[in-house]
């Protein structure tokens, strides 16, 4: 898998491509269903598969005060998609100027000219372009005009609940990690750097580590959690105190 950063790299995708569209924060079961569909259908067509996403969550750019804490950092997204068979992970730079792009221009300039789209894969509720004016209907119409196919993935649910990054954020914030894990299809995790603390644990026979974390990530509700900790390729049984 090749990672492309839109702000640094103006190289175009070399071959015709299948493009998966969305923010994909969390890379939950719904997202992975979409991405697997993208990879499989692109293979069938003999084209490259590309996930086109943003390095910063649009909500955090457009509604600065309404901070959306993120579930997966860029680094984590790369890690999770690394061995899926995806050809390109494309992080574009979302800023105010970009947000004003009309859906029709996004299709023409980015999907068609830049990514040489032959297939677009989105979820049922995908919206794009200025103020979210574009939807799957518009995308399908443009597909007929420009000659690309569109696959719309129906809502992936667990127990009748549509899986979404918003519901995962709510579960994590409430401390309902079991539910978040079910929706994510893996264990919720946080990465960070070990920093020096008061070393109290050591004096009672438990080594402790203070983790400093990226401040935009979502944290579970204050409390004590049973965890596993991965340090330098070794996994330890652990207990983590949040707060
Ligand atoms: C060209 C373009 C312009 C966009 N402009 C806006 C905007 O003005 N307001 C907004 O809330 N989101 C805007 N978005 C973000 C989309 O509504 C949407 O969040 C994003 O494409 C990811 O889709 P998803 O939320 O279904 O994953 C824009 C997206 C694109 C591709
Ligand atoms: N449960 C789901 N089932 C099918 N597609 C989904 C699901 N959740 C999100 N998608 C699709 O994945 C892409 C990224 O969605 P995004 O808005 O980032 O996620 P979410 O809706 O979880 O916040 C969009 O095309 C969206 O329609």
UniProtKB/TrEMBL annotation:
It catalyses: FMN + ATP + H(+) = FAD + diphosphate; riboflavin + ATP = FMN + ADP + H(+). Pathway: Cofactor biosynthesis; FAD biosynthesis; FAD from FMN: step 1/1; Cofactor biosynthesis; FMN biosynthesis; FMN from riboflavin (ATP route): step 1/1. Residues 183-241 form the Riboflavin kinase domain. It is an enzyme of class 2 (transferase). GO terms for biological process: FAD biosynthetic process; FMN biosynthetic process; riboflavin biosynthetic process. Its EC number is 2.7.1.26, 2.7.7.2. GO terms for molecular function: ATP binding; FMN adenylyltransferase activity; riboflavin kinase activity. InterPro entries: FAD_synthase (IPR015864), Riboflavin_kinase (IPR023468), Riboflavin_kinase_bac (IPR002606), Riboflavin_kinase_bac/euk (IPR015865), Riboflavin_kinase_dom_sf (IPR023465), Rossmann-like_a/b/a_fold (IPR014729). It comes from the Bacteria. Keywords: ATP-binding, FAD, Flavoprotein, FMN, Kinase, Multifunctional enzyme, Nucleotide-binding, Nucleotidyltransferase, Transferase. Belongs to the RibF family. This is Bifunctional riboflavin kinase/FMN adenylyltransferase. It comes from Pseudobacteroides cellulosolvens ATCC 35603 = DSM 2933.
